[in-house]
Amino acid sequence: MKNLIYLALAFFIISAGKVFAQTAPQPTFESLQMNSSPAYILLGVEPSNIQRPTTPSQFVAGLQNAVVNGKLQPNVAFEITPYQYQNPKDTTSRLFYASDYLLNKKNVLQTIWQTFSISLATSATDTTVFGKLKPGTGAGVGFHFLLLDGSPGDRFKAWADEYLQFLFIKKIKAMVTNSSAVNIDNIDLVLDNAENDYVQYVLPKINFNTLSTKQVKAFIAAYRARIVANLQLSANGKDRATIQKCLESLYNDEKTKLETVTNALNQGVNPLAKEGFTLEFDAGQAYAFPDDNYSDMTLAKSAVWLSPSYRWDLSKGANAISLLDLDGVMRYTFNNTSVGVDVANYFDAGLKGELTQNKWAGSLEYVYRHASAIPVGYSKDYTYRLTAGLSYKLSDMITFTFNFGTNFDGNTTTYSDPKKMFAIGGLNLGFLNLGSTKN
Amino acid sequence: MANPNPIQVDTPVVLTNFQIPAANKNDMLTLTVTVTLTTAGWSYVTSNQVFLEETDKYPAGTPNPVKLPLGRGIDVNGLKLLLETNIVLIYGAGGNAGGPPIFKYNFSIDTNTTNISSFDMNSAGNNVTDFNSQILFSQL
User: Fold this and answer.
1) pLDDT score of A99
2) Could you tell me if residue B34 is inside a domain?
3) Where does a domain end: A247, A267, A287?
């Protein structure tokens, strides 16, 4: 087992070598949570069964503890997002990359491609999770992608909306400022040109366009009407200096508004967190190596699942992070019955509520499991898992986690056992996170 | 003699003469804008308006122009160049209590092989900062 972990470590350090020396990305809340990886879930070593989908990183690796065959054992996992490798950002630049937080997607297919991630994890195999297979090493492989990726928070949207409007008035002002004409006979022509350039060149380069086409048209029409109305009030509405003065006044108004919303964005906590509905699709397979023999590799289980999630940002400008998440899962697991992993397949449906306050997070999770067949001699075809969890973020790299509750009774042959309590505490160590951050 | 610095911070442009050396009259002049922001945790959004007389030389505005062709020395002689750069600072981690950092803004006029003039200016410590320049090219 240890050898496999070392091998996995060496592999992903080498695979990340070309970006290893780049500037570390800016740490953010939730920056290194790996236990939502499909590879971990199928190995059955995750402390929590339902996780909120996150925006993927270029490369992320993590270490966590789990109880396997009654002993606390380390597990390692890593995840790679091909899109982030194909479209690496210049990490030496301080330019704001909104796509770190908000996907610059046009449709669902682009969302899928931009978030498609492949994960690999290893762990000692637990005889409860893997049934009659002898203890040894387990390896999980999986992928996941987002179908829906949420929406920007109120403060970011307020900032982005204002910035986009600011750029339009800035374009008009520059056009008039550098004109050598004494009079501008046709202000409508200037406004037409500004609108054309804005829609054709400026907006496509902005990767955080929070305005719909309808909203863009509406604010442009409002500005145009305001400019024309102001000029009609002046004694000489065609004089370039008069027009410039009018535009300077409008520009300064918008700049003041932009300074205000930017200040609110920078001073508020968790300013770039997404809110709203996210939906993730996951799939994976778990392989077992009984007695650590490579030649005995066995496909133990395969699964597909959907993870819907909704987030409310309760902080709303306060000085403390306060988030409420409601997450769900619907998963179907195909067990390899021929080798005795179980005698039935599983359908899981679960719900989890999580409240995050600054560095603390508390959660309550319930997962119902239905078996496709009832084993001989047993009467129940269901079980459930009820778990409470607490985590404390010591740093962006280290999170202390503690979970307790009742677990699934392992497999269908133990469904009728009394539910057993479990408690597990430990540190999740995220030791690499290259590329985009998570929020 | 060095060309005077035309950069105005958060105030309207002031038309400033810019002399092009005689040796560069047939060289293509280019414009490059650089922002040096070193304070950890901060990033910036940039927008540039570059007009040579009434011709928009950089309609998209972002990112900062690098070696943007303006024209040969003799072709731009007597023309006004407007460069208005707006920088907005973003503190991605949030919870900033110390105010925005000071950063350095620079623009340079070059040929393919030499620098004709380079101008620096520091920001004024706001979240939103304008660097406004307007120069009148004069070919020596």
Assistant:
1) 64
2) yes
3) A267
